[in-house]
Design brief:
This is Epoxyqueuosine reductase. Cob(II)alamin binds at residues 84, 161, 182, 185, 196, 244, 269-270. Keywords: 4Fe-4S, Cobalamin, Cobalt, Cytoplasm, Iron, Iron-sulfur, Metal-binding, Oxidoreductase, Queuosine biosynthesis, tRNA processing. The protein is an alpha+beta fold. It has two domains: 20-107 and 130-201, no CATH class; 221-370, no CATH class. The chain is 37% helix and 10% strand. The chain has 16 helices and ten strands. It has helices at 20-23, 26-42, 56-67, 87-90, 111-115, 132-151, 167-173, 221-225, 243-249, 256-262, 271-274, 301-305, 309-315, 325-338, 344-352, 359-370, and strands spanning 47-51, 96-103, 122-123, 156-159, 178-179, 185-186, 194-201, 231-233, 236-237, 265-267. It has a four-stranded antiparallel β-sheet, with helices on both faces. Helix 2 runs antiparallel to helix 6. Mean pLDDT is 93; it is low at 1-13.
Length: 373
């Protein structure tokens, strides 16, 4: 699973205050809330819940996390003041937030087997297909339009991991699960292989009750399995050590202490999900857009390393992998090749990039070749 920490982008608001928010009776609002959950499922979401905008406890957790510099180079985590934990500052007039989730795990992607084949590239399961942002935002916007068809003009705005929103906190409050010790949202009927999205609204809908307790119990398998010891305590992730951060968010050289533990993970990491007992309840996705493209779920590191930049751009069009850029892609693959079994194919691929016009790539290629001496 991704860190779910992405640079904010501008999204078009559809927020026009109207008397609708006060014209509906409590009974009508309750029926509307039930309809919203039905419509969400019809639009392909597996679950939906409604919460208020009070995130005080989660704001303090975020403040403490930032104070420990656990965000690393993700400066956008600090660039919006308290807007991330105060939805009404992001979208004035917001009273409620409809939180939705959508399963993304492709079936038969041999998740564990690929990790055990060090010559193969492991790519986080969420990024094997098309970028989820547009698909989910479109569906959430359609949900807003269905509500509008029912009640008339009202204020709403859709978000999908692309603006200062504490989506896991909102989903937890909306009853979609609990934030586990690995800092991901867990659901006792669906595990954690799902995306989240939100519809901010000015409708005073009845809110859902959150689950009262975490169901992680004494289990701390996620921390024990983490290759880089990024989970430094229950619900405490030092992103600077997280492979998802190192292979996606970090733009410079990957610190040498993490290169061996990264293994063959070249874009993100799913270890803390793979080991989580609750993921035995995870369902495979029904969305064809999330299915693997270009055999990215089973390709050799050396083959990917020899892609030209044009091939990279073509084969990652509409993919989350574009986020790392071609230079970052080569950097990550070089690390993977340094950890791969020594053979002519691996050595030949690395030597082909020794003079690549990027000091970062060259540094990682030289390191990789040193591992095969």
């Amino acid at each position: 699973m991704p860190l779910y920490l992405f640079n904010p982008v501008t999204e078009s608001p559809n927020h026009s205050q109207s008397p609708i928010s006060t014209a509906l009776s409590q009974q009508e609002l309750a029926q509307l809330a039930a309809d919203i959950k039905l419509w969400a499922r019809e639009l392909g979401f597996q679950d939906a819940g409604i919460t208020d905008i009070n995130l005080g406890e989660h704001e303090q957790h975020l403040t403490n996390w930032l104070a420990r510099d656990f965000h690393g180079e993700m400066d956008y985590m600090t660039s919006h003041g308290n807007m991330r934990s105060r939805p009404e500052e992001l979208v004035p007039g917001t009273l409620r937030i409809i939180s939705v989730r959508m399963d993304y795990l492709p079936g038969d992607t041999q998740t564990v087997r690929i990790l055990q084949q060090p010559e193969k590239a492991y790519i986080s399961r969420y990024s094997l297909g098309r970028d989820y942002h547009k698909l989910i935002r479109k569906r959430i916007t359609q949900l807003g339009k269905r509500i509008e068809d029912k009640v008339g003009k009202f204020g709403y705005r859709a978000f999908v991991d692309s603006a200062p929103v504490l989506e896991k906190a909102l989903a937890e409050k909306a009853g979609l699960g609990w934030i586990g010790k690995n800092t991901l949202l867990l659901n006792n009927k669906a595990g954690s292989w799902f995306f989240l999205g939100e519809l901010f609204t000015d409708l005073p809908l009845p809110i859902d009750e959150p689950q009262q307790t975490s169901h992680c119990g004494s289990c701390f398998a996620c921390a024990e399995i983490c290759p880089t010891d990024a989970i430094v305590g229950p619900h405490q992730l030092d992103a600077r050590r997280c492979i998802s951060y190192l292979t996606i968010e970090l733009k410079g050289a990957i610190p040498e202490e993490f290169r061996k533990p990264i293994g063959n993970r070249v874009f993100g990491c799913d270890d803390c999900q793979i080991i989580c007992p609750w993921n035995k309840f995870a369902k495979n996705t029904c969305e064809t857009d999330f299915l693997p493209r270009h055999k990215l779920d089973s390709t050799d590191l050396a083959d990917l390393f020899l892609w030209t930049e044009e091939e990279f751009l073509d084969r990652t069009a509409g993919s989350p992998i574009r986020r790392t850029g071609f230079e970052g892609w080569l950097r990550n693959l070089a690390v993977g090749l340094g950890n791969a079994p020594t053979n002519d194919k691996v050595i030949s691929a690395l030597q082909a990039r020794l003079d690549y016009p990027s000091e970062i790539v060259q540094e990682h290629v030289r390191w990789a070749l040193e591992q095969h001496k």
